[in-house]
Amino acid sequence: MAEAFGSDPARYDRTRPSYPGALVDRIVAGRSGLDIVDVGCGTGISSRLFQAAGCTVLGVEPDARMAEFARSRGLEAEVAAFEDWEPSGRAFDAVVSGQSWHWLDPAAGAAKAARVLRPGGRLAVFWNAETPPPDLLRAFGEVYRRVLPDSLVARQWTAKAMDGYAMLCAKAAGGMREAGAFGEPEEWRFAWEKTYTRDEWVDQLPTHGDHGQYPVAEVEEVQAGIGAAVDAAGGSFTMRYTTIAMSAVRASA
């Protein structure tokens, strides 16, 4: 399922939300020229933010289609699962992962990060939790319960988004502690907003969760239902995002 996102990398890159500048600033912490590994870099959405901040970024991505797209946008990317990736003696100042760390075993991922980080280097993993206006939250949930009741996304619109992401952060923190090479993990949260038109949001839907596991006709039915809900709300809406991150610094010895 983790590799299903590469079926349409251009759509993924075009429609998926970015991340707030405050997150990048917190990780970079005013330092210039950092060497960064972006785990599960996808098409390079987060990688490009760190490049713009003056960092040298290497993407590690298991899906060759996503990695090739990232390369076309100026990112050096190597195709591998992070746990199996061979750093070949290279060392880095930070290991980051946006919207991807839950596909790894958190303890194995943290141990691998500790192996490639320089002393004092930072591991930071993060996700975007989204909350639409209450009326659309209900409407979206109704569409998914009707068309794809067993999907992961159906559960997303019937529960508080932050609860699931807080659980992912807790698992990430547990892995960092288990690795035995990091200081105490810290949780960061950054609130921001993005306004979507009907077409922009509908275009993004196939890149979410497990949509790629269902017949095209069912996904199109979801898109039609969601589009109608946004039309009923005036044709656009503002999504409230919280970027939630878990971070720890590699011990000096």
Short description:
This protein has helices spanning 9-15, 21-28, 45-52, 64-72, 106-116, 134-147, 152-156, 161-179, 198-204, 216-232, and strands at residues 35-39, 56-61, 76-79, 92-98, 117-131, 186-197, 236-249.
Would you mind describing this structure in some detail?
With 253 residues, this protein is an alpha/beta fold. The protein contains ten helices and seven strands. The chain has helices at residues 9-15, 21-28, 45-52, 64-72, 106-116, 134-147, 152-156, 161-179, 198-204, 216-232; strands spanning 35-39, 56-61, 76-79, 92-98, 117-131, 186-197, 236-249. It is globular. The model has no long low-confidence stretch (mean pLDDT 93).
Taken as a percent bin, the fraction of beta residues is: 15-25%
Look at the helices and sheets and give the structural class: alpha/beta
Shape: globular
By DSSP (H or I, 4+ residues per run), the number of helices equals 10
Low-confidence stretches: none
For the largest beta-sheet, the strand count, sense and barrel status come to: 7 strands, mixed
Topology pattern, helix = H, strand = E? HHEHEHEEHEHHHEHHE
Task: Note the gap between the termini.
Answer: 38 Å
Strand runs, count: 7
How helical, in percent, are the residues? Answer: 40-55%
Strand ordering within the main sheet = 3-2-1-4-5-7-6
Mean pLDDT: 93
The radius of gyration computed from the alpha-carbon positions, rounded to a whole number of angstroms, is: 18 Å
